[in-house]
Amino acid sequence: MFSMTAPKSTKLSTDSYKGVRDFYPEDQAVQKYIFDKWSKVAEKFGYNRYDASILEPTELYHAKSGEEMVNEQTYSFVDRGDREVTLRPEMTPTVARMIAAKKRDLGFPARWYSIPNLFRYERPQRGRLREHWQLNVDVFGIASVEADIEIISMADALLKEFGASAADFTIKISSRKLLNSLFSGWYEFSDEQSMRMQKLIDKKAKMSPEDFDTEAEKIVGKAFKFLNLGKKSGEYEEAMAIPNIREAKQELDTVIETLKKRGISNVEYDETIIRGFDYYTGIVFEVFDTNPKNNRSLFGGGRYDELLKIFGEEKVPTVGFGVGDVTMKDFLEVHELLPKYISSTEIMICVMDNEFNDAANKIAEELRKANINVAINYSEKKIGDQIKSANKQSIPYIIVIGPVEAEGNTFNIKRLSDSLEITTTLAETAKIINFIK
């Protein structure tokens, strides 16, 4: 039986579980910065925040995330009530469940966003860990391409909010509806061949061209060649004569052209963009970093109109995307867009002796009333050591309290970056705020 008490001779490791992170104050500040930007952009577009538990019934993912996700990439277990439970690997099935539960009480179109904690059991690598946080945004109840355009526009605005330019990333767009129409109407694949080809195309970027061609031939029984719908040709015209192919291609063209008209120039058609999840039904897209140091897919999303069917509900047209904090941080680092860390504590009060603690507390209380973040160093260490501590913690300002400051009304505030000081009193709050802000 497992014991919670380690043997006395055992020295516990300080390492965290493989594939997860510890967030020291500087790391937490970066995460907060990212989350705040995410929320700001989502709310600018009229989206409201929601959340849910990290625990979901495993059957939810069997139904729509795909067998590979459930069997190979989830943290699943049987609880004490003999129920199969999974730590959520993604948020889309959860939000679909929530919409289905209160569909008749909600006003549509509904615009929701969340920043959930997600878990996937996979090999940790750059941009991909076993635990991460992810911005999810979804608009429910708009069947027209305006919803697709809005979601992709938000993805563009999101990166630009961090200071990125259009040259820093590319938005590649395709359509599952178009691909499905091509598979059935042009290539005349069976349902099984279509499903297997979708899975293969989703992995294409990680394969050599030779390996892809070999695997494709195994699936379809002959050499496979993409029908290039990015330019007109005899084959293009033949494919466009098939109604459902023509309709899906026109829809895709409308999205791309409208985005460009609205100032998003770094958007392009890419027939290999497919997105791995089974639930996508229409426009899909991925955002790619153009920096050679991080030349990879950052995030993506698309339309999934039929996910509510698994709950016995009529379909609700839906478009959304998710972007993870790990890939976002990598992007910001390679483009030098992360701000320099500064502690949320603005002033440290260094106390020469504990007999001056009351004076230090009086100053701290007044400064806090003015919405200034203040910490008092009660360590009784030498002032030089207290200043070193403030520097290590990236606290930008200090106040030293000794007998002179305790007996009088004045004290000095010092900026550690350049040793600039001002002499002030508690009555001069505006002066203090102006100096440190």
SS strand fraction: 15-25%
Q: Quick one: how many beta strands?
A: 17
Question: Helical segment tally?
Answer: 15
User: How much helix is in the residues?
Assistant: 25-40%
Distance between the termini: 57 Å
Structural class category: alpha+beta
Largest sheet: 9 strands, mixed
List segments where confidence is low: pLDDT < 50 over at least 5 consecutive residues: none
Radius of gyration computed on alpha carbons: 28 Å
- Global outline: elongated
- The pLDDT mean sits at 90
Short characterization:
By secondary structure, the chain is α+β, with helices and mostly antiparallel strands. It contains 15 helices and 17 strands.
Describe, in plain words, how this protein is organized in 3D.
The chain has 437 residues and is of the alpha+beta class. Helix content is 38%, strand content 20%. The protein has helices at 25-44, 59-64, 67-73, 92-101, 145-161, 176-185, 191-202, 209-220, 234-240, 243-261, 325-334, 357-369, 383-392, 403-407, 429-436, and strands at residues 48-49, 55-57, 75-78, 84-87, 110-114, 117-119, 131-140, 169-175, 267-269, 283-289, 297-303, 318-324, 347-351, 374-377, 397-401, 410-415, 421-425. The strands form three sheets. Strands 1, 5, 6, 7, 8, 9, 10, 11 and 12 form a nine-stranded mixed beta sheet that branches. α12 links the parallel β13 and β14 (374-377). It starts with 24 loop residues before the first helix and ends with a helix.
